[in-house]
Amino acid sequence: VAVDGACLTVTSVTSEYLVFDIIGPTLERTIAGAYEVGKRVNLERAVQLEGRIDGHLVQGHVDSTGYLVQSVKEGEYWMMDFSIHKDVYALTISQGSIAINGVSLTISELRQDCVCQIGVIPFTFQHTNLGDLKPGDLVNVEGDLIGKYLSKILSKRGV
């Protein structure tokens, strides 16, 4: 199960909650260590690749945390600016994909200082925890898988 985009294994289920085992590196790389009782999280089961895929491939392997810089309502949608880690920013392109708290999103604009701007439609804003975010709130960030592989291949070739 992906919890805010972090792939976790359910170890126990009750009528009120799910239980997960989380190891140190996951706590260091994600926002999971900051969860409090009652916090709304995005939950998603793993996709089966035999079906239709919407968005981009999100593995549930969070690269780092980032934070919301600002959220501005523009008509029916929101423009949200997120500060992301420089290594993720380096692999990110305008009109490319990024996952914020497990939500597959399209980057509207890359700004200075490792900030990416994302347009969020009303459905996504209301049905995910993106609508709960306040400036400074931490989020899980997973960069685009294709960018990661291209970077690895090119670096091995000395490019």
UniProtKB/TrEMBL annotation:
Presence of keyword Repeat: yes
The keyword Cell inner membrane is assigned to this record: no
Keywords for the protein's UniProt record, in alphabetical order: Repeat
Any matching Pfam family: Lum_binding
Single GO biological process annotation from the record: riboflavin biosynthetic process
GO molecular function terms attached to this record: riboflavin synthase activity
Lumazine-binding domain segment(s): 1-56, 57-154
PANTHER family with a match to the protein in the record: RIBOFLAVIN SYNTHASE, RIBOFLAVIN SYNTHASE ALPHA CHAIN
Protein name (database record): Lumazine-binding domain-containing protein
Organism field: marine metagenome
